[in-house]
Design brief:
Elements: E1 15-20, H1 24-35, H2 37-40, E2 46-52, H3 59-63, H4 70-73, H5 75-83, E3 88-92, H6 102-108, E4 111-114, E5 118-121, E6 134-136, H7 137-144, E7 160-164, H8 168-178, H9 191-198, E8 204-208, H10 220-226, E9 232-235, H11 245-253, H12 255-273, E10 282-287, E11 290-298, E12 301-312, E13 318-327, E14 331-334, E15 338-340, E16 357-358, E17 361-363, E18 369-375, H13 378-381, H14 389-403, H15 417-423, H16 431-448, E19 450-453, E20 456-459, H17 468-475, H18 477-483
Parallel strand pairs: 1-2, 1-4, 2-3, 4-18, 6-14, 7-8, 7-14, 8-10, 9-10
Antiparallel strand pairs: 5-15, 11-12, 12-13, 16-17, 17-18, 19-20
Helix pairs in contact: 1-14, 7-8, 8-10, 11-12, 16-17
Length: 484
């Protein structure tokens, strides 16, 4: 390993780093920095302040993962261990550009790492996207995950619904739409989410992928989850099962692809061999080899989705056939990917939705490295890969930060950040505050106890607190009690 030269001023005080974004990307970056040989050997002391615009940590895991994915939600346990260290401070409900500026961070820290992720829906440029009943998948995820800034109401009056996309988010959206709400009562969803989902009029959810079964972007875990929904039939179409040379090669060389194609094929065989007619009250249709052409409307509302049939071209890609079909649907959910947002005070690549950077070193509009400014996660590389890929991404950024130690400008302001926020009247939540909020959500779950549903009894372990004000009230409860 390359030996890191430590500047003299850092031998007498900690390396002070600000990380903006307390989701997996930001927390992994903190963890990688703490575990680096330079720090773990004792050669360099470390102090990290982690900021998030929400009152809670964990970002995507808390507000981007479906509540019925407890194994993925379990990643919070590992992230919790990182934050529960004396070398890191959490400041929730603090927005960059809203409550504090980038310049003020640079004054107080040796380095600033941006880990704000990608939270918006990527554009789908077809006619009809602005019709009533056309929804962004990311917006729907924020709603059912009870994001404090999401609308509390959601229109679930459509009986027939289309979901455009073949990634994990598309399957999450389709599963939540088609799944009976009683099956979600064992999760952390609050009452208003359950009530609206329980009153949903949906009978049929159609998921559309542009390419074939061998090119889907979801994972085997997400796919298998579909079969766990009770009183929901999965419907497949034989004409969609087309494979070209590239598909065959992918199946042979990639175990994940092989598993997914095998699962889908087995479901199709079972469907064709089934003697009795489907009896479930809801149906989840999986379509492949179709591209959206237009969201059709009448009187300003969605009434259908026009699709073009595709064929594989031999390379795993597709070309249109000129054959069109319209599906009668009353709602369309666009789940074609996430997109990053601009960060106050930093040049932004609006075409890619990222901060311009080279291996995590942020660049200005002239392509020059911005001193002491770094990026990690989806705001660095775009919304690709699973949560686990964020670790390697963070490692690259941290290695470059450490390589730059000698050139980092020294902070010029010793004022503690908590003091500045307090002077401004910013109602921020610290780590102790999160622990109080965490305890309260678990208490709400235990108070609800065992609940009788149409599918049997379930025990509630946690119920999310939704509003920002309520979260902050619980986060400050301990401090208020101690001050009395």
């Amino acid at each position: 390993m390359t030996e890191i030269a430590i500047p003299e001023h850092l031998t007498s005080r900690p390396l002070r780093v600000a990380i903006v974004g307390a989701g997996p990307a930001g927390i992994y970056a903190a963890d990688m920095l703490a575990k680096s040989e330079t720090v773990s050997s004792g050669a360099l002391e470390l102090k990290i302040d982690l900021f998030d615009e929400l009152p809670t940590p964990f970002g995507l895991i808390r507000y981007g993962v479906s509540p019925d994915h407890p194994r993925i939600k379990g990643i919070i346990t590992a992230l919790h261990k990182v934050l529960n260290n004396e070398w890191i401070n959490f400041y929730g409900n603090v927005g960059l550009g809203r409550d504090i500026t980038l310049a003020e961070l640079h004054e107080r820290y040796d380095a600033v790492i941006i880990a704000t992720g990608a939270q918006k829906d990527a554009d789908l440029n077809i006619p009809g996207v602005n019709l009533e009943g056309s929804f962004g998948g990311a917006d729907f995820v924020s709603w059912y995950d009870a994001h404090p800034d999401a609308e509390t109401h959601w229109d679930l009056s459509a009986r027939e619904v289309a979901v455009i996309g073949n990634g994990n988010v598309a399957l999450d959206v389709a599963r939540i739409l088609s799944k009976h709400a009683d099956q979600l009562l064992e999760t952390e969803i609050p009452e208003h989410i359950y009530t609206l989902l329980n009153d949903s009029a949906v009978t049929d959810v159609h998921v559309f992928g542009r390419r074939g079964p061998a090119q889907v972007k979801f994972t085997p875990l997400e796919l298998r989850e579909l079969s766990h929904s009770k009183d929901v039939d999965i419907v497949l179409y034989p004409e969609d099962f087309e494979f070209d040379e590239a598909s065959d090669q992918a199946i042979k060389s990639n175990n994940q692809t092989k598993t997914m194609v095998s699962t889908l094929t087995n479901w199709l065989i079972e469907q064709e061999e089934r003697e009795e007619a489907p009896s479930a009250s809801r149906r989840l249709h999986l379509h492949f080899l179709q591209s959206p052409v237009e969201i059709e409307g009448a009187d300003g509302k969605v009434v259908g989705l026009k699709m073009e049939r595709n064929e594989l071209d031999g390379t795993g890609n597709v070309r249109g056939t000129g054959e069109f079909v319209s599906y009668p649907v009353q709602a369309v959910y666009r789940a074609v990917g996430y997109f990053g947002s601009a960060v106050d005070g930093i040049d932004y690549d609006g075409a890619k939705g990222v901060l311009p950077n080279v291996a995590g070193r942020v660049l200005n509009a002239q392509g020059e490295q911005v001193p002491s400014l770094y990026a990690t996660g989806w705001i660095k590389r775009g919304p690709v890969g699973l949560i686990g890929h964020t670790k390697g991404d963070a490692l690259e950024t941290i290695n470059n930060l450490l390589a730059d130690l000698e050139s980092l400008p020294q902070p010029t302001n010793d004022q503690p950040i908590a003091e500045l926020l307090t002077e401004r009247g910013i109602d921020f939540a610290d780590w102790e505050g999160w622990l109080e909020l965490d305890t309260q959500e678990k208490t709400l779950g235990s108070d609800a106890g065992t609940v009788e549903t149409r599918f049997g009894e379930v025990t509630r372990d946690r119920i999310k607190i939704v509003s920002r004000d309520d979260m902050l009230e619980h986060a400050r409860a301990k401090k208020l009690a101690e001050s009395l």
